[in-house]
Amino acid sequence: xxxxxxxxxxxxxxxxxxxxxxxxxxxxxxxxxxxxxxxxxxxxxxxxxxxxxxxxxxxxxxxxxxxxxxxxxxxxxxxxxxxxxxxxxxxxxxxxxxxxxxxxxxxxxxxxxxxxxxxxxxxxxxxxxxxxxxxxxxxxxxxxxxxxxxxxxxxxxxxxxxxxxxxxxxxxxxxxxxxxxx
Amino acid sequence: xxxxxxxxxxxxxxxxxxxxxxxxxxxxxxxxxxxxxxxxxxxxxxxxxxxxxxxxxxxxxxxxxxxxxxxxxxxxxxxxxxxxxxxxxxxxxxxxxxxxxxxxxxxxxxxxxxxxxxxxxxxxxxxxxxxxxxxxxxxxxxxxxxxxxxxxxxxxxxxxxxxxxxxxxxxxxxxxxxxxxxxxxxxxxxxxxxxxxxxxxxxxxxxxxxxxxxxxxxxxxxxxxxxxxxxxxxxxxxxxxxxxxxxxxxxxxxxxxxxxxxxxxxxxxxxxxxxxxxxxxxxxxxxxxxxxxxxxxxxxxxxxxxxxxxxxxxxxxxxxxxxxxxxxxxxxxxxxxxxxxxxxxxxxxxxx
Lengths: 182, 352
Prior knowledge:
The complex is a heterodimer of chains A (182) and B (352). Chain A has 182 residues and is mainly alpha-helical. Chain A has 2 domains: 1-107, RNA polymerase sigma factor, region 2, helix turn helix motif (Rna Polymerase Sigma Factor, Chain: A); 115-182, Arc Repressor Mutant, subunit A, CATH 1.10.10.10. Chain A has 9 helices and no strands. Chain A has helices spanning 17-25, 29-51, 54-72, 81-99, 110-113, 119-131, 134-145, 150-157, 161-181. In chain A, α2 packs across α4 (81-99) and α7 (134-145) packs across α9 (161-181). Chain A starts with 16 loop residues before the first helix and ends with a helix. Chain B is built from 4 helices and 15 strands. The longest helix of chain B has 30 residues, at 60-89. The relative contact order of chain B is 0.15.
């Protein structure tokens, strides 16, 4: 028999998040690929904004998806899946930043830094964001781009709410100063 | 930004103005190569423990609880630090009751040399209870430690699957029952495949006790380890490489060979699962060979047995199982450090 048996299962694109979660938790690789197709771009964006490095962001997303089957077995379905995935990604990215904090400068990938309508200005902003110390950039990105509250940021970063507010203040001041110097 | 007392209106305006531009920063697309790498790594056994935190919904109660926790934390900081360090520093390794002692080797590479000892006659397993004794003797044949144990097999179900619930309970003599080693395992009745497993050992090294919880799904073994009276846990996430199947937990070993068709020339391999908290304690491959036939007398009776040799990473065990039903009746391991011997004998049985 040369023709392989046809897979009668519905494609992962037709499955709900809940169905994919159940399948992935059971070790289904196709479902894991389905979750990647659905959410990887968004998670990569989160990871990239935190690390400002394409390679680091891809490593973060790689680790997140590699650990998803086991992690989803502890997923309690409080809140949305996308919110949970983002928080996990943020935590992995922050963990990576903490380990890599010795790196003085970030390898900013210019091809992703510039929006087409105002390349020079956006490059300046992206470079300035990448120049910020990781501890300040993390709070700035999580608050001003991802829209988390200071309480949520404090929880994810492992600092107090007051420290989160202080870091945002310092991050904004540093960003303004960097942009003014250019 | 009013939390500094002096409001920085210019910085507020800057933040408001910069926010759309920050949100518009371009980010890289998710490449297909990354998808392929993830799936390939996963298929090859790659695993990552993710920092899955608690739900971060905020409430007044949380602040109250947090305040109390901060006060308690300050008071208990020295103890807390010690506990956290304990949980991280613990390097727990399973000890095996029947197929050897503690396996020290690194995890195996390649594949087993002998054919897999699959339980093709799982229907031969029955409910019942075994009682046995394990005695450690020194080089002068003096008993230095005696453990009384029981193994009960009960028909049950787990997650809707017909299962055997196997409970091993061992108590060390002379400790007033304080030192125990308990293991509860649920295995599928159809093929003895592991479903869930819980282990409690008390005391464990310098801790009051250790708890291992495992669950097998597909080719993954996941779970957690906790220490009694110690904050924190360590997650378990390991791949069970199919080349090393079948996998069984220590509690199942005295009855497992009942489901395997033994003969005078039989030989096979299987893998005893470790606690899987640390990398070197996940898979403990075992080679089994029938080397002869002997009549063996133990407190439970006199039985015609297959004599077997069991090789594991820590040494060699002489092992006798009944020819009639494959139940283990005796095991002897020589050269147990420091120069002693370990003997396991069947004391009595009910329903087997």
